[in-house]
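Quick question about two entries, pasted in order.
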Amino acid sequence: MADLSFFRSPIPRPMTDRFEPVFSPEVSGSTNSVGETIDDGRGRIFPCEQCGADLEFSIGQQSLQCPFCGCVKELAPSAEEIRENDYHAVLERLQKQREQGVDELLTAKGVNEVRCESCGANVVFQGNLTSSSCPYCASPLQRDKVHDASSQ
C-alpha cells in the first residue's frame, strides 16, 4: 500500500508571509482612533490607554473598562439635566408630524416611493436619487422608469 502521509501534512506558507505583522502598525496599541466611528455611525471605538484593546461599557460602574488589562476609564457626567418625557404627549406629537409629513410627501414633486421586495418596507426617494439600499434589510433598491421623459 502507498504511503499517503504526504497528503496529510500541512502545506507550508511562502516565506514572505511569515514575517508580516499580524496587525497593521497604525492599529495595534495606538490611541489615535479614539472616538472614531465604525460601521457607519452605529458604534464608536475607544482603545485602552494601557494595552490598546477596545474598551467595553460597564453598565454597573457606568464607565469604560478593558476586558484584557482591567483598565477603567471614568466617564464624565453630562452637564445637561436628564428630563423625562410624557409618553402620551410624545406619541401625539409624532402622530402629528407623521400626518404632516405624509401630506407634504403627497404634494411634493420629485418624490417617489419604492417598495422593498425583500422585507416589504416602503422607501421614499427624493429628487434625483435613483438607487439606494433599504434601511431595514440593506437590500439594494432602484427606482423604475427613471429615464421616462415625462418624469424629468
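Here is the second entry:
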Amino acid sequence: MMPGVFNETSLLLLFVGSFISCCLQLVHVPLTAAGRNRRLALIGLFYELGVANHLFLAADYMIGVLSNTGTFAADTILASQWGHFLWGNVITVTYGIAFCIYLKHPVMIPEITFMALCTPPALRLLGPSWTIVAILDVAYFLFRTTAAICVDAIRRTEKLSKLSVIEAVNVIPVGILATEHRSASALMNNTMRDTLGILNLPTDLGDLSDMWERLDRVAEPLRAIANLQGIPLLSGEGNEKLLIRLPNDTYKLFTREILENGERHMTLALDVTDLALANRNLWRANLDLKDATEAIREQMSLVGLVAEGEAHLKMRARVHDVVGQRLSIIHRYLEEQRIDNTSVAELKELIATVMNDLRGDAGDASTALAAVVSAFALVGVEIEVTGELPTNPRVAATLVDVIRETATNACKHGHAHTVEIQLGRKEASHGAHYVTLVAHDDGDGMAKNADITSGTGITGMRRAVESLGGFLEIASKSPFVINIGIPER
C-alpha cells in the first residue's frame, strides 16, 4: 500500500483517466479550430492547448509516481520538477478567464476552477485535501473531453467545413472525373471510380486524357440501338453524350463538358437506368401500337366491305319494296283493263315517283305512309291504319316499309282488297316497351305448306326489323297475319 489514500491500483486508474482525457483533448483541438471562424479559432486554439497541457502534466505525474513508488502529497509535488510545470496552469487559467468573459460562456467556469486548484499556490493552501481535487479533476475532464468529442461530431455533420465538400463529392451518386489535357487527372470521386472499375477501365489518377475515347468505344454497340429506337437523349448529341450499359444491368449516361479552351474536361456519369428502361418499353409499345394500327386498318377495310354489302342489301330491299309496289298496282290496272286517260295519267304519276321513293325523298314517315295508302287506293286496295307511327324516325320508316311490302304481297299474291294495319305500344314482362304492328288482309291467303320466303320480301322485312332489335313472326297464313315488335327508344 502506498502512502496517502491511494494505492497502486487507484493511481493506475487515475493515470488511465488522465491519459484518455489528454488523448481526447488532442483530437478535440483541431476539430474545434476547424469549426469556428478564423478569429475564434485562433483564440480557442491557445486555450484548448492549455487544457491539453494540464491533462498531459496530470498523466505524466501519475506515471512518474507509479514508476518511482513515490508519495502523492501536495508538498512532494511542489518540491519536484512538476511543481515548476504547474505554473503553466496559471497562464491557462488567466487566459481562460478572459476567454470566458469574452464569449460570455459560464460553462467554462468548472474547468477553469479545477485548473486553478492545480496551481502551486492552490496546492500549498489545500495541503492533504488536494488528493480529493485530483480525483474530481480527472473525473471532470474525462467527462468534458468525451462530451466535447461528441459535440464536435454532431457539429461536423451539421456544418460545412473544408472537408465537407470533399466528402460530399465522394458520396454523391453522380460520377465525377476532372482531367487536364495530356496530364494527370485532377479529381475522381468514388462513384466514378466504381463505375470505371465495373467497365474494367483505369481508376487511378494517372493520365486519363483519353478516357472519353475509351468510353466511346464501350458505348458504340448501345448507340446503334438507341438511334434505332429514336431516343435522342440517350443516343447522344454530337460526341458529348454516351449511353453505356454496365454488366450489372444498369445504364449510365456519360456527359462531357470542355472547360478553359479545351485544357480541362469535366466528365459526369449519371444513373439513367429507369429512364433507359422506360424509353425501351416506350419503343416496344410504339411498335405494338404500330402493329395494332395496321390491324385496325385491315379491320376497317373489312368493315367497309361489310358496310358496302349491307348498303347493297338495303338498296335491293328498297328496290324490291318500291318497284314491287308499283308493279303490283300496274298488274291490277291491267287485270281490270283500266286503259282510259285518267288511269294512264295515274300510272304515269306512279312511275314518276319511283326514283324519289328509292332515294327516300318522300318526306317524313307519315307522308310516306299517306303516299302508300293513296297509291294502293288507285287499284281498289284499301289500307286501313289504326294507331300512330312512333316518334323515332328510323323505327317509323321501317314500319312504313313493312306496311308497303305487306300491302304489295296482299295485292300481288292474295288478291286482297283490304289490308288492316294496327299500330300500338306494348310493355314486355321485363319492363321494356315495344312498338307493335299487326297486319292482316282479306285475301286468299297461302297454303300451309307454301314457301313464304320466296318472292314475298319476308326476308328483307325480317332483316330490317331485327336490325333494330325487334322481331317478325307470321301468326297465320290463311288469312295472312304478321306480328312485329320493335323496342321503343
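Reply: The CA atoms of residues 409 and 465 lie 17 Å apart. Confidence is low (pLDDT under 50) at residues 1-5, 233-238. Hope that helps.
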